[in-house]
Write a structure and sequence with these properties.
single chain; alpha/beta; Rossmann fold; 8-stranded mixed sheet; 7-stranded mixed sheet; 14 helices; 15 strands; 36% helix; globular
């Protein structure tokens, strides 16, 4: 199979979908790997390193898309890439289709077999391709929150860990999956007072067991969320519904009741956000202020540390990429239910139920 790796064109996106070690694994299995010139530059990977890994480096991205049987990316395709789509071509990337009707329509029109990293789910309900970037995003969420609490960044002027005689910041984390857990690790490590909220009792019990009293767990009903938002210096939205648009659990009224200069980091923004006042931002302009609250809503948070993120992502994706390349999508999906669950669109139809629920009028034949 010919596997194509284009350079990411989303604003502020510095990652690349495959590192040289991944290219070496694929070419060693008899596949052809095409990498767009400069694709790894922002992750500190040179074209020469890709060539050493057995990949071919192409300057013409349109030719790369045309030749490739499977395109491996990091982020969802942008309108400038829609014209490259061809029937039967496999696209393997983060898609987040439930929050993007335009991308969904383009994939259906192009007849693309699209597999979402974020919807590839194992039988025990794990999301192996979402976890590494969620770990990065969670850690960065706490770091970014701490930075934007500084007065010159619009925040309250609160030090996350406080100092002797002065209380630490109140950090509220809504959702205790991979993002929430990693955000909690960093916030606790910096000395903050941490509250972790979720609706999964077993997950709350697990968190309670491993944090050893260094954080508090609270069931996330609307009243408890409103109360937590009112005292939070930093609120981190880490809610996930795999493949589906994230519900707005923090209402605009709750935001209005937050302390002036407090900070919201909505990690769920790539799925629509879990805060009613959230709107997508970029690394170039990561924040805005609404109701006197700083909002950090960058849709590709892990891109801030692209080298770490690129290597972590390849480590997670390469076995699935190789399986699809070795077997083809039909046999690979037939053998591995996780790949089958990752399918979002195929042959002009919406396959994933959460995307179908989001856009019931699309993809009907």
């Amino acid at each position: 199979m010919i596997v194509g790796v284009p350079r990411e064109i989303k604003e502020g996106e510095n990652r690349v979908a495959l590192n040289p070690a991944g290219a070496h694994i694929l070419t060693g299995s008899g596949h052809r790997v095409l990498v767009e010139a400069g694709a790894g530059e922002q992750s500190g990977i040179s074209d020469a390193e890709y060539r050493a890994g057995g990949a071919e480096v192409l300057r013409d991205v349109s030719r790369l898309w045309d030749l490739a049987d499977m395109i491996v990316k990091v982020k969802e395709p942008l309108p400038a890439e829609f014209g490259y789509f061809k029937p039967g071509q496999i696209l393997f990337t983060y898609l987040h289709l439930a929050s993007s009707k335009d991308v969904t329509k383009a994939l259906l029109k192009g007849g693309v077999t699209a597999i979402g990293y974020e919807t590839l789910e194992t039988s025990d309900h794990q999301l192996p391709l979402l976890v590494p970037m969620s770990e990065v995003a969670g850690k960065l969420a706490a770091q970014s929150g701490a930075i934007h609490l500084q007065k010159h960044n619009g925040g309250r002027g609160v030090l996350l860990g406080g100092v002797p005689g002065v209380a630490p910041a109140e950090v509220v984390i809504l959702g205790c999956g991979a993002v929430g857990l990693n955000a909690a690790k960093v916030a606790m490590g910096m000395g903050a007072h941490v509250t972790i909220m979720d609706i999964d009792h077993s997950r709350l019990k697990y968190l309670d067991d491993i944090v050893h009293g260094n954080a508090f767990t609270v069931f996330a009903d609307p009243l408890s969320i409103a109360h937590a938002a009112s005292y939070a210096d930093l609120l981190i939205g880490a809610v996930l519904r795999p493949g589906a648009r994230t519900p707005h659990l923090v209402t605009e009224a709750m935001v209005k009741a937050m302390k002036p200069g407090s900070v919201i980091v909505d990690v769920a923004i790539d799925q629509g956000g879990c805060v009613a006042t959230s709107k997508p931002t970029t690394h170039a302009k990561p924040t805005y202020i609404k109701h006197e609250v700083v909002h950090y809503c960058v849709t590709n948070i892990p891109s801030a540390v692209p080298r770490t993120s690129t290597f972590a992502l390849t480590n997670a994706t390469i076995s699935y990429v190789r399986s699809i390349a070795d077997l083809g999508i039909e046999e690979a999906a037939g053998r591995d239910p996780a790949i089958a669950r990752g399918l979002n669109t195929q042959d002009g139809k919406i396959i994933h139920p959460a995307v179908r629920e989001a856009f019931p009028a699309l993809g009907r034949k």
